[in-house]
Design a protein that fits this description.
binds S-adenosylmethionine; Rossmann fold; 7 strands; 269 residues; alpha/beta; 11 helices
C-alpha cells in the first residue's frame, strides 16, 4: 500500500520506491539521512516519520520548493494552513494568485502548493499548463483537498526538529560531505538525463546538472548511498566507470504503466 506524507505531488517523486527505501535504510543504518535533489523529499519524510533516522537534511536548489519545506518545519506552518483553508480554489483565484510575486516566505510556500495542485502533473517549471477537467470532471479543484493538506502539514510539523533544509547545489553539498568523517545515508535522485538530452519539456525549474561530475563525486564518497536514475546508456556507462552496482527496477506507477529505472549503489541492495 502506498503511503502519503507530503502535501506536494512531486513529478519524479519516489513514493513508489518505499519498499526498497525501507530495506536500504535498515541495512548499515545511520542516525542521519541527507537527501540530495530533495524535491518532494519522499525518502526523508519516510525515514523520519517511520523512525529509521533521527535527522534528515533536504538539499534542494529551487527556492519555491525550499520555501514549502521551511514553512512546514517552522511555526509558520499555522499560517500556511490558514491560507490553504480559506482559499477558494477556482480558475480565477488560482490565476490571480499565480500572477503576483509573493511578499513573504509563507506566501511563496502557499503559492507553490497551489501551483503544484493546479498544474498538470504538479509541474513547477515555468510555462507548465494548468489542469483543465481534472479527475472525475471536477475541474481544477479535483486535486485540492485542504483538510488532507493541512493534516499532512501539521503531522510533518510535529517532526520539525528532525529536519533541516539547505537551499543550494547538491553537487557542492556532496563535495563537502565527502570531506566529513562521520557517516550519513545519502539518497540521491537527480533530474532525468534523458529529458535533458532530448530537450523534452522540463519538469523542474532547475532541470539540468553535470551528471558526469555527480558520478565522480558519488564514486569517491565513503557514505552509504542509494541513487536513482532514468534507464539510459549514459548513466550506465558513468556508473561502470566508477565501479558502481546498477540494478534495473520496475517502477510501480499509479497508472500501471510499465517503466524501468536504475538503482545505483556501492555494493547492490
Ligand atoms: C527527481 S526530482 C527529486 C524528487 C524527489 N526524490 C521526490 O521524492 O519528490 C529532482 C529535484 O532536483 C532539484 N535540483 C535540480 N538541480 C539541482 C541542484 N543542482 N542541486 C539541488 N537540487 C537540484 C530539482 O529542483 C528537483 O526538485
Amino acid at each position: 500500500m502506498r503511503v502519503y506524507y507530503s502535501p506536494l505531488r512531486y513529478p519524479g517523486g519516489k513514493s513508489w520506491l518505499a519498499l526498497e527505501l525501507r530495506t536500504w535504510l535498515s541495512i548499515n543504518p545511520s542516525s542521519e539521512l541527507v537527501e540530495l535533489f530533495a524535491g518532494g523529499a519522499f525518502a526523508s519524510l519516510l525515514a523520519v516519520v517511520e523512525g529509521y533516522v533521527s535527522k534528515a537534511t533536504l538539499v534542494e536548489l529551487d527556492p519555491a520548493v525550499c520555501a514549502v519545506w521551511r514553512s512546514i518545519f517552522s511555526p509558520t506552518a499555522d499560517d500556511l494552513c490558514a491560507l490553504i483553508e480559506k482559499f477558494t480554489f477556482d480558475e480565477k483565484s488560482v490565476r490571480e494568485l499565480l500572477s503576483v510575486e509573493p511578499e513573504s516566505e509563507v506566501m511563496l510556500a502557499f503559492r507553490t502548493i497551489v501551483m503544484n495542485r493546479a498544474r498538470r502533473g504538479g509541474i513547477l517549471a515555468p510555462g507548465a499548463g494548468l489542469l483543465k477537467l481534472g479527475e472525475r470532471k471536477k475541474g481544477m479543484a479535483s486535486r485540492w483537498y485542504p483538510e488532507t493538506l493541512c493534516k499532512r502539514i501539521f503531522m510533518l510539523n510535529s517532526y520539525a526538529k528532525k529536519f533541516s533544509v539547505i537551499e543550494g547545489d547538491a553537487l557542492e553539498k556532496l563535495s563537502t560531505l565527502n570531506r566529513r568523517k562521520s557517516h550519513v545515508k545519502l539518497f540521491i535522485d537527480p533530474p532525468y538525463i534523458k529529458l535533458q538530452e532530448r530537450g523534452i519539456k522540463p519538469l523542474y525549474r532547475f532541470n539540468s546538472i553535470n551528471h558526469r561530475k555527480l558520478f565522480e563525486l558519488v564514486g569517491k564518497t565513503h557514505h552509504d548511498f542509494l541513487m536513482t536514475y532514468d534507464l539510459n546508456e549514459i548513466a550506465m556507462s558513468f556508473a561502470k566507470q566508477q565501479n558502481l552496482c546498477v540494478e534495473k527496477i520496475q517502477m510501480r506507477t499509479a497508472h500501471a504503466i510499465k517503466k524501468e529505472e536504475l538503482l545505483i549503489t556501492r555494493n547492490c541492495l
